[in-house]
Hints:
The structure holds 2 protein chains of 2 kinds. In chain A, helix 3 packs across helix 9, helix 4 runs parallel beside helix 6 and helix 4 (49-62) packs parallel to helix 7 (99-111). Chain A has 9 helices and no strands. Chain A has helices at residues 4-9, 16-22, 25-39, 49-62, 66-78, 83-89, 99-111, 118-126, 131-159. The relative contact order of chain A is 0.16. The two termini of chain B are 31 Å apart. At the A-B interface, helix 2, helix 3, helix 7, helix 8 and helix 9 of A face helix 3, helix 8 and helix 9 of B.
Amino acid sequence: MTDAMDKAAGIAPDDALYATRRFRPEFVQGAEACRLAVLQPANDQGLERDLRLALARRMAALNADAALLEEYDRQLAELRPSERIQAVASGKTDLNEPLATIVRHVDLITLTPSRAEAKHIAALAGAGLNNPQIVALSELIAFVNFQTRVVAGLRLLRSA
Amino acid sequence: MMSSIRLKPLNWHPYIAPVELSEATPEQLDAMKVTPSAKKVSDYVRTLAHDPESYVARTILFNAIMYVEGGLARPDRELGALGASIVNGCKFCAVVHARRHAELTKSDDVVTALYLDKPERLGPRDAAIYNFARRLSAVPSEATADDIAALRSAGMDDVEIVDLIHAISIFGWANRLMHVLGHAEPAK
C-alpha cells in the first residue's frame, strides 16, 4: 500500500524505489506513525487538527514542496477551516494572538533553526502556550521538516 | 598535517521545565521507558515527555534510522547527521555525532576537516555524503541529481542512499528539538 511519503514523492507500487523503501519497513511504518502522532494525535494538547494541518501546509510552502502543499490543502479543505485557520495555512502574519506568535515561530524554526534562542520559547509561553503545547508544536514543526527532506531525497533518487 | 580536533561533550539545558518523574502521568512514565539507556532519565527525554505520543513515535523511528542492521555503514549515517546538524546550527547534536563518527572510524580526520571548515580534505565518499547532507538540509532543499550521482559513483546502492536520506532528514527533526527547546554548554 502506498503511504504519504510515496504519494508526495510520486512513487508508484511498480517503481523500483517502492520496493527499495520496503527494505526498511521500520522506516516506512515509523514515519507513518510519526505523521499520525503529530497531525492527528489521540491527545492534541489543545492544538487542534485544523491548526496542525494549516501549519503543515504553511511549512510545505516554505519548503517549496508543491506535492505536499497540495496534499495538506486537500486534507485541510475536508475540515472546512475557518478564515483564521486559512490565514495561518496561506502564510499570513497579521493574525491575532496566539496565532501571530505561533506562525512567527513556525517560520523561524523551519527556515533558520540555527537562529533559535531562549526568547523564542519565552514568546510562545507569553502567548499562552503551556509546556505540552510548546513541545507538541516543536514536534510538529520538526516532523514536517523531516518529511519534506525525505520526500525531496526520494524524488531525486526516483528520477536519477 | 592538521592537528586533530578533540571535541568535549556538551551538556544540554532545557528552556522549559521538564516533566518531574513524581508528577508524570502513567502515559508519560511509559513513554520515558522507550529510551535506549534507561539508567537515568535525561532532561531532554523529560522535556519531550510533555507530549508522550510524539516522543514515543519519534524515538522508535530515530533508533531504527540510526541503528538498524545492514545497509549504510554506521559512520556514514553519523556523517549525514553531522552535516545536517552543522547546517541547522545544533552544536549539541554536532558534537555528539562528530564524536561518534570518530569513535566508529577510530580517526579524527573527517571531524577535524569539518570543524576547521576544510571540507576539501574529505575523501570522495565522505565528500559526497557531506555535500548531500548540507544541500538536503537547506530550506527549501538544494540537493540535486548531481548529489545522487556522486553518491552512486562513491559506490552507494539505492538501499544505502535511502538510509542516508533518512539519517540526514531525522536530524532535520532532532536539531529542531534540541536546538530549539534548550541550549548546550560545555560539561563541567
